[in-house]
Design brief:
Helix 9 crosses helix 10. The strands form 3 sheets. This protein has a 3-stranded mixed β-sheet with strand order 2-5-4. Strands 1-3 form a two-stranded antiparallel sheet. A two-stranded antiparallel sheet has the order 6-7. The chain is mainly alpha-helical. It folds into 3 domains: about 45 residues; about 120 residues, no CATH class; about 100 residues, no CATH class.
Length: about 270
């Protein structure tokens, strides 16, 4: 009987003394795993969702003031993502949308996917149709809205859009005539308080260049006229030089668009930072 009691106490003491050791061992294992987890982070491999599906790219832009139509804003929106408006859609109805004045609430396209931005610009009456092979976009009237678009209106809208494109962007070869026409340096100024570079650019007769190319051209020709090395910080009282255009040093339309977006982003960041 005594041996039995001792045996039971021995078993109890073994459990009591063994229990802390077991708990301590579990704690140590947990701490070790946390250290290893913090030192060796797992990083997902492969392309992001927006890289495999460009329409899922997050848009955060403000359409420049000089762009006044829905079609112009679509061109501005699509270029950085390799998309373009379809020039020869099967029907002419999309031109009714392209020539419309851009609503002010649609000038800011922020915190939305590229696809959502296309839907927003189409409004309630048009829906975007995507050609994934050509990476092109065209718009189709939604059901029930065809009654508001007469065939004559469509034809007039198409001609207006084509005339507008021809006026805003001439073929690159016409840049040579610009260079030859500007034999002497022209000037603009002095800059008035409230003037913006985009407003000044719209006053100049520089055909054959996109508006973004004109902005970059003026900015690079007049570094003295801008604060913080930013084209959005135009200084009042300065006189801008308008030298002859050199097509060889002129950035491409896409490069100019990227630079304008970059300057705008830096300007906004500086404005909101206390």
């Amino acid at each position: 009987m005594r041996e039995t009691v001792i045996g039971r106490w021995g078993a109890i003491l073994t459990i009591v003394f063994a229990l802390p050791l077991t708990v301590q061992a579990d704690t140590t294992d947990t701490e070790d795993s946390r250290i290893l987890e913090s030192r060796y982070l797992s990083v997902p491999m492969g392309p992001e969702s927006a890289q495999t599906d460009l329409l899922k790219s997050i848009v955060d832009i403000r359409v420049p003031e000089q762009i006044t139509t829905v079609g112009g804003s679509l061109d501005y929106l699509l270029k950085p993502y390799g998309f373009q408006l379809e020039d020869s859609p099967e029907v002419d109805e999309q031109y009714l949308l392209l020539i419309l004045m851009l609503p002010e609430p649609h000038r800011n396209l922020e915190s939305m996917t590229l696809m959502d931005a296309l839907i927003t610009l189409g409004g309630k009456s048009f829906r975007p149709l995507i050609n994934p092979v050509k990476r092109s976009v065209r718009y189709q009237l939604r059901k029930g809205f065809g009654q508001f678009a007469a065939a004559e209106d469509r034809e007039i809208a198409k001609q207006q859009w084509l005339d507008q494109k021809e006026t805003n962007l001439l073929p690159p070869k016409d840049l040579e005539s610009i260079t030859g026409a500007q034999q002497e340096h022209q000037t603009y100024g002095p800059v008035q308080r409230g003037d913006s570079l985009s407003h000044i650019a719209s006053q100049l007769n520089l055909t054959g260049m996109t508006i973004d190319q004109v902005l970059v051209y003026l900015f690079r020709a007049n570094p003295h006229a801008f604060a913080n090395d930013n084209m959005n910080h135009l200084l009042a009282g300065k006189t801008l030089k308008i030298p002859p255009v050199n097509p060889e040093t002129l950035p491409t339309a896409f490069e100019a668009s990227q630079l304008v977006d970059e300057h705008y982003g830096l300007w906004i960041q500086r404005e909101v930072t206390p």
